Input
Amino acid sequence: MIFWAIFAGVLSLANCETSCEKCLDSGKHWCADVKMCAFSPCLTVIKKSLNCPTLPDKSHAYDDGFVREKVFLTTCAAFRDDPQKCFDNKMSTMRVSSTFSVNCSAIGPQSNCFAFTAFDVTQKVLVLTFRGTEGAIQMTDEILDFFGGKKSLGAAGNIFGYFYDAFFFVWNGGLQQEMRKLKYMYGDFELWITGHSLGGSMASIAASHLVQIGLFKPENIKLVTLGQPRTGDYAYATWHDATFPYSFRVVHHRDPVPHIPPMEGKDELFHHRTEVWYNNNMTVGSSYKLCAEADGLYCSSRNLDAEPNDHMTYFDVQNMQDYGLAGCV
Output
């Protein structure tokens, strides 16, 4: 009897705060496993408010079929200099509008960044897609630039410097005029913004910038990235989550890239929501987990090892680049 009385008292104290946010405000941790404040031991410990468990509402739910059949196609098409071939083979109503290929290295050897726009009058959709990291030189630039710090995106927080520069090189290389033209021509169309790896970070920044300058409303944007590295700091993740109702970061199994650059404290790089983790080979019908927490030792971050090949293998395509170069067949 004494044991149960003590146990009941502990539960009462642990559960005195009824929500994750209130629990953290009181200086305690939230245990997501049992949905109780200060409960211990606990596997899923929440110490940052951005990690308080939450998922998109039903009107902005994740759809495996949409991402697998349409977003993945537009992402892979970016590996071609002429993306139209992929659409001719798999989505004939989509037409490429413009492509952009610019040097996106502020210092050091030249490295290329590529993006394209497209439109579909049948689906009433605009597309903006960014290509991922190309080659060892660009990857080395990204890694070394982590030590160069972050750059401000105004009220939206701060962005890892390499990703910031990469996006604005493309933006100032003609993308700005293109997006204004497409908005003028197809003002009521939905906008899909996609990208893989480096392209995922550029897609995230693009969505943010388009909203910041008032060109597109966040509710008209669907942002889906694959294998996206950490892009901005905690302030950026907070602003992003408060702004975009439809935003998903797809992660395949043990892909190491979503876990770099590393987090180092509250104000360093931090993922925005919502991670969709496929802890399998991503074949049709495979299960996936919507991660209710933004970033930390949750979902895919609980893996103790990494598999580099998983970074190029999404939705049961063994090499996204080869698939895209072959015309998505």
Observations:
- The CA atoms of residues 84 and 208 lie 26 Å apart.
